[in-house]
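Reopening: D-alanyl-D-alanine carboxypeptidase still failing for me.
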Amino acid sequence: MRRRAFALVILLLILLAAFAPPSFAVTPDDWDADNPGALVPEHLYAQTAVLIDFETGDVLFDKDSQVRMYPASTTKIMTVLLALESDIALDEEVTIPDVAQNVPSDSSLVPVYAGEVMTFEDLLYGTMLCSGNDGANAIAYLVAGSTDAFVNMMNERAAEIGCTNTHFANAHGYHDETHYSTAYDLALIAQTAMQNETFRQIVSTARYTMAPTVNRGAYNITNTAEMVNPDSGYYYEGCIGIKTGFHSRAGHCFVGAVSRDGVSMISVVLRSTSESSNTTAKWWDTRKLFEYGFAQYEPYLLTDLFDASSRSINTVTIPNAASDDAQRGLLEVRLTQLSNGEYTRRIRSGSEGLAEALADFAARTEITYNEDLRAPIDEGEIIGTLTYTAPDGEVITGMLSAERAVAARPEYATVYDVLPFLIPLEPFFSSGAVWYVLVALAILIVALLILRARRRAARNRRRAAIYNAKRRAYNYAEAERRRTETQRQQRERQRRQAAPRQDPRRRPPRR
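Support: Ran it again with your exact input. Result attached.
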């Protein structure tokens, strides 16, 4: 019985497996070019990859970007960055040291030769565009005095940039077990390097001609980064470099950069290899990352940014608007007649991305309104101009027109209406000279008031002195009068006391 039940269960499982809907693993071929925003890690050939925003460093896409990998010749990004940060001038003639020849036999070469004299600029172009290991060694010796000292500089600079899982063992990237990095760390290094204008110019150059030397004539070189070459089938509009890399342990690698429609990104793909092609997978992976990145940004015309800006940008207050104006003179303006109406900025989706874009728009915008802007104003009337300087340097101008009509409040009589004889003096009153006159008059008035106050004080002091003198004289005379009266009264009392006393009952004799 148990055996029969077990057999039935097995049969049921077999039937379920047979009739279950088929499931397929996601592969790079499943990537939909019409829906680039749906990119998933399985759509990439690369073992690890990352895409970051060049301006902010935000990670837009990640595929195991913190896994330690071999960077191969993408190492030369750091090598050339340190060269540009050194004291050696681009036009300085340098002599290629012997150490330039100390590279493995299967190395990629510029080539340069020991004792050869060339400009430092030519050496940098040759090293970067040709991925020359010999050139990298020459740079290391010229900058630091030895390759070991230069490697120490590379590791110190990586730590300064913020790399936490990177260690360089040489200047060119040929395989070494202790020479490693990650996709994310390489993106940080590339982000720093691309802030150097000379570095950007070098890595975005499709072709370059090195000047002739005693060892050879003029030498034409082509950038190994095919995505910057318009003649290549892998050209990508807006791609500005930066560096390829390859060896058997690292696989095919590419650190890329793109800048278009106001969006700049850095991409890294490491060990990018397909079954059908070992060389082209890195270009497809990079294209997928770029397309995904641009899908994360929404297109905005300048008029969209202007309308979404704060009131300090898209409004103006009319000082003499009518008292019954519903907006109290606040006038919204429209941006019209742009010199490049098709110009588009791509902004990261979300409120934070828009806020950053609006702040950047305000910083790049200059608004000038007509002199003495006053009502009445008609709807659509041109009242000012706007000048916008794009990140790539393009200057775009436009006109500012009134969104609505604004009536003026009644004009009141001016001093010139009441005193027309002052009209000839109007230029003087409206000029800056009137302020100097007013200041001088104010100083004169203050001086006169001070003088008047002093004279009044002196006069009061004289009056007080006369009054006090008279009062003292009066007091003296009064004192004398009282003293004389007192003496008289005393004499009168003495006289009365000296006279004989009479009986009051006795009548005086009749005469």
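Residues 433-498 form the longest helix (66 residues). If you still see a failure, please send the error message rather than a screenshot.
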